[in-house]
Write a structure and sequence with these properties.
Layout lengths: L1 H10 L6 H13 L6 E4 L8 H8 L8 E5 L8 H6 L16 H4 L4 E5 L6 H13 L1 E3 L6 E3 L3 E6 L3 H6 L5 H7 L2 E4 L7 H19 L5 E2 L1 H9 L5 H15 L4 E2 L1 H5 L26 H29 L2 H7 L1 H8 L3 H6 L14 H5 L23 H15 L4 H8 L3 H11 L2
Helix pairs in contact: 2-3, 6-8, 9-11, 18-19, 19-20
Length: about 425
């Protein structure tokens, strides 16, 4: 335990949380070896302190230590940054350049946000981890390097592997030892301690009295969820130190600096599986639309059969009110106030014969159905003939223009004219 306290003082690490102590203990244990380490944890928890501890306590401490943010380097240049390039390897490569793995030979390289590496770069990195070999961009000569790699990420690596954004073999090479840094919301006893440390640092930096929280403010500090972790806590302490004239900070004042969402430390329910309304492809959306249309069509068929059987539209409306509302999406008030034109879909057409006399038993009481006319034919053959005729009429003597209007070649139009005898 004494060694952990010395390490905390040396690297200015604040906190007594057991999970934090365990992470520091693992870092101290693996430091003398050359084992590759993967540091995981949310953004802002202080993952960058672990590789510094490992490097300073290793036999490489007198060699170079380089920290590389993999997410900040563009995909097109990251291979050149890490492994170097030869002169003329690409546009702008006016001279040979050494990469980080060559420069850091014998030392430690910290790959922050390693989960953001492109797949092609991951293949190169895997080769370095396996046998210490790499190729410069534009070179065919294999070079050797003796570098210890410590990587860090806030990405769920198993999820990234599942989505094929990260190589599984590289993950197991990097995570020979995995060190998990706990989020700030799980270190409740450390939150106020860290705030006081930051407040003291900023009072010295800006040469002003130190801010202090009252009891209600300290309670609010512990209740807040801190999605940005230590980085967010530090920023808020700096804001209050600079902007507030009063050095005694109440809960009301502190609340003004905390984002309203999220405001508590209540657990959040996270759905791992997609809900039925979440569509992963356009095909699923189309399927749902088709199924909804099929359901509406079945409802309309049912309503039509009721109308034909009862021959009493008002009775059908009363008995199938819920079904009508479902189909047309109207509430009770809208259905009552709907004008006559909108309700025509539910009214049976009255024929002239009905007005003049009552149908005899021998008459077909559904004779009006024969008067229903189709507004538009469903025959593609007839529709095509109609379109060709209209186009020829609009472009008399200009078959080329008619063909262009129809979106076909002039030869195809001529063949169809002959085929349909137009």
């Amino acid at each position: 335990m004494e060694g952990i306290q010395n390490t905390k003082q040396r690297f200015e690490i604040i906190g007594q949380d057991p999970k934090l102590n365990r992470a520091l203990e693992k870092a101290m244990q693996v430091a003398p070896t050359d084992i590759s380490v993967l540091v995981t944890g949310e953004s802002g928890v202080g993952k960058e302190a672990i590789p510094k501890i490992i490097h300073s306590l290793s036999h490489r401490k007198h060699a170079k230590y380089i920290a590389v943010n993999c997410g900040a380097i563009p995909e097109g240049t990251i291979d050149s940054e890490l492994f170097g390039h030869e002169k003329g390897a690409f546009t702008g490569a006016t001279q040979t350049r050494s990469g980080y793995f060559e420069v850091t030979d014998g030392g430690t390289i910290f790959l922050d946000e390693v989960g953001e590496l492109p797949l092609t770069t991951q293949v190169r990195l895997l080769r370095v981890l396996e046998n210490g070999e790499f190729l410069k961009v534009g070179s065919s000569q294999v070079q050797k390097t003796d570098v210890r790699i410590v990587a860090a990420t806030n990405v769920n690596m198993f999820e990234a592997i599942k989505k094929e954004r990260f190589r599984e073999d590289l993950y197991y090479r990097l995570s020979t030892v995995e060190i998990q840094i706990p989020p700030l919301r799980e270190r409740k006893e450390d939150i106020h301690l860290l705030f006081r440390k930051f407040a003291s640092d900023f009072s010295q930096k800006y040469k002003m009295p130190t801010i202090r929280l009252d009891d209600a403010g300290a309670a609010l500090l512990l209740k807040y969820r801190w999605p940005g972790n230590i980085r967010q806590l530090r920023n808020i302490a700096e804001q209050i130190s600079v902007l507030e004239e009063k050095r005694a900070i109440s809960a009301t004042t502190l609340h003004g600096y905390l984002p309203s969402n999220p405001g508590s430390n209540l657990p959040a329910v996270i759905k791992n599986s997609k809900s039925e309304s979440d569509f992963s492809s356009e095909r699923e959306i189309l399927y749902k639309v088709l199924f909804d249309m099929k359901g509406d069509l079945n409802d309309l068929k049912k309503l039509t059969m009721e109308l034909l059987k009862n021959n009493d539209s008002q009775k059908v409306q009363d008995e199938n009110e819920n079904l009508i509302r479902k189909i047309y999406g109207e509430d009770d008030a809208d259905i009552e106030t709907q004008d006559a034109t909108e309700m025509e879909v539910l009214q049976l057409p009255e024929s002239k014969q009905e007005k003049s006399h009552t149908p005899t038993p021998q008459e077909d009481k559904y004779h009006f159905a024969e008067e229903i006319q189709e507004e538009e034919t469903l025959s593609l053959h007839e529709k095509e003939i109609e379109l060709i005729k209209k186009s020829l009429e609009r472009n008399r003597g200009k078959r080329k223009a008619a063909a262009a209007e129809l979106g076909i070649s002039e030869r195809t139009l001529y063949r169809k004219i002959k085929q349909y005898d137009l």
